[in-house]
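User: Could you write out the 3D structure of this protein bound to NAP? I've included everything you need below.
Assistant: Certainly. Input first, then the structure.
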Amino acid sequence: MMDGELAGFAIPRLGMGTMALAIEGRPDRDTAIRTIHAGLDAGVRYLDTAWSYYLPSEPGTGTAKDLGYGEKLVRDALASWNGPRDEVLVATKTGYRRTMEVPAFVAPVSDSPESDTQGRDSEGCSRRPGEERQHLQAAGSQYGWMADSRPETMIRDAKESALHLGVDTLDLLYSHGPDPAVPYEDQCGALKQLLDEGVIKYAGISRVNNEQIDLARGIIGSGLVAVQNQFSPSHPDPEHTMEHCAELGLAFVCWSPLGGFLDTFDQSAYDPFRTVAAQRGCSYQRVVLAWELTRYERLFTIPSARNPQEINDSFAATQLQLTQEELAMLPC
Ligand SMILES: NC(=O)c1ccc[n+]([C@@H]2O[C@H](COP(=O)([O-])OP(=O)(O)OC[C@H]3O[C@@H](n4cnc5c(N)ncnc54)[C@H](OP(=O)(O)O)[C@@H]3O)[C@@H](O)[C@H]2O)c1
């Protein structure tokens, strides 16, 4: 019950998100590597990263020197791990980048003193001058996120992801999220092209509704294997995208499965889990993850951790069989 198939890998359905090891609040690099090793030693076989897991540079400091930090961290952790590297599915995402809170004016690429040889500014962006794009800001963070999912950007960044990760072909690449400035079919077309060219083995999509899932499936076909959407007790799935994935036979991967750490959320949603955890004598986070695994037999959950203890605690959810009585106390 706790194992599943994803992108050709038969693996535990509890993987590890590595975002918290690569963005604001991240631990030092040695701790981050030890945390990934602890997860792998415990049995994690799915590592989730993204092209955009890095910190943007202060405007005016030149190239975005942190670009690729998160993916290179995963590469280096796998290279220095003593276990079976071939058993580990590494998924990454394309189509997002980081921004400073107040995006600086981006001059035309050829004139910009801040652009690097790839024509990007200090945030890793390749925007056209004056171009407005979706901008997401986490509460309390000086950094933001921005979609740039033009097909040419997605394809270029995917090839960079392979270089960062030190692989010829990416196991699984998600489109990070819809970009309001780009028709969704064009984003799906980019994933299809990457599949056809052998840059990626499988495709996934993220932050999507049912309509976008259907659109992607029509364009990408059987190469589309997973949907990564937000799901946790504090962020249920109002559009029932998980049910739609079940109807279509797609894996559902939940992001921020413990509510996330960037934005505040309704803590009371976790009270029933705290009650069960108190009876079990374990963390409520472990109960949350075990509960998520009961939601759908092809659900994968990918909690972040910032130290070895957290991922060890979380992975133990794969051994926690909740009883019918306990499940009756939790949301259905
Ligand atoms: N597709 C997307 O757009 C998207 C968006 C967001 C995230 N993601 C993916 O989802 C992954 C997870 O999401 P997330 O990083 O937002 O947050 P999360 O998994 O919900 O975790 C939030 C925080 O909970 C704490 N924690 C984790 N395990 C714990 C344990 N066993 N006991 C106590 N505390 C624990 C950690 O914070 P402390 O270190 O502060 O204790 C962790 O950073 C990311 O790494 C990323 O791969 C994807």
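Residues 122 and 323 are 52 Å apart (CA to CA).
User: Perfect, thank you.
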